[in-house]
């Protein structure tokens, strides 16, 4: 379309909270909207349709959505023709839908995680109706294939390999918002990746809440390791990543696949959540500290130089000082490249929310700080070993803080900044690390 007709096209703005799963759902919604003639805007004020794709995993994620929704009221008053839609994990909860209905009546459309493909229909209905349209599906067990996606980058892409989760960790709301675990057929996944490769995509990240249990729901069983080996054969793809792995299902077969497949990046994200066996049991994680440490040892031995990252929760109900010290012990023994750390957040409807021995906030916060003080120096030490080394970087964008630099990622998923311009975006280049820091690396391009 030319510029003049672009002016007449309706504009959408999507704000996304939560994990990569949600980010990728937003890419699909963008794809759907562009198919029906919408164009994207980065300014909510200019939008004809605003979508909030929400997350329920922790209370602060939830509160941010209410705050932002409140702010939209003034905008909607000024621009009554604008449509406001709220979707994502929060909308799968009836109490939250009721709250939206009661307190945020400037919202036009409410839908959930299982019916994003219905967006065009919902928009058409909302244009004709004055009331709020609420259409949230329970998990039907089906996977909707063939949805378009407008991906953020051309050279790297998320690809769902499975949806939902069957693990019911006692703190976690995800199985309730995303439904039961179901795997996509390998042929559907490979078709998508082949198409991406044909369009110039170099890196794929395979997504699932627990990718290690991929294939269990298929009639013809395929393991995740077998799937990875198939993806490794796709011409044009140069890097393969995947997330998230669950320690209880991580097999020797998978470790061997990572070791043997040249395109699989040397990075594994393996959340351990807590170090104490008592807490792990209460979390329903189904592995022990010893099992986790043993796994890490096997992985490090098989794939030297692999980066290991993790998720950790502080202050799960019943966590004592001794329990917390077990968490610190795992951090010191494994030496993570980096870690996502969370204060335990009560999620209504999960078993842990009803546990009586909740940890007081001040104790949680003190432990949290001690955890960070343990993680950060280790991250720095690991990164310092990269000084003067040459690494492969996939360049992603112009650096946000310094326009004379570009930002990219190593195979080990570390962020690197180095002098360069936009011609490098999407290219795989060699960079010499000159200044390793705790969270990022600085370097220079090697010709
Ligand atoms: N499926 C992935 C991640 C799901 S959510 C996995 O199993 O690892 C991402 C992270 O959020 C979790 O790993 C956990 O560390 C954290 N998380 C989930 N629920 C939480 C809660 N109620 N309070 C604090 N952190 C939580
Ligand atoms: Fe939540 Fe556990 Fe499932 Fe991860 S594996 S999504 S933490 S229930
Ligand atoms: Fe949040 Fe839903 Fe992901 S609750 S973490 S957006 S699966």
UniProtKB/TrEMBL annotation:
Keywords: 4Fe-4S, Cytoplasm, Iron, Iron-sulfur, Metal-binding, S-adenosyl-L-methionine, Transferase, tRNA processing. This is tRNA-2-methylthio-N(6)-dimethylallyladenosine synthase. It comes from the Bacteria. It comes from Caloranaerobacter azorensis DSM 13643. Binds 2 [4Fe-4S] clusters. One cluster is coordinated with 3 cysteines and an exchangeable S-adenosyl-L-methionine. The gene is miaB. Monomer. It is found in: Cytoplasm. Pfam families: Radical_SAM, TRAM, UPF0004. It is an enzyme of class 2 (transferase). [4Fe-4S] cluster 2 binds at residues 165, 169, 172.
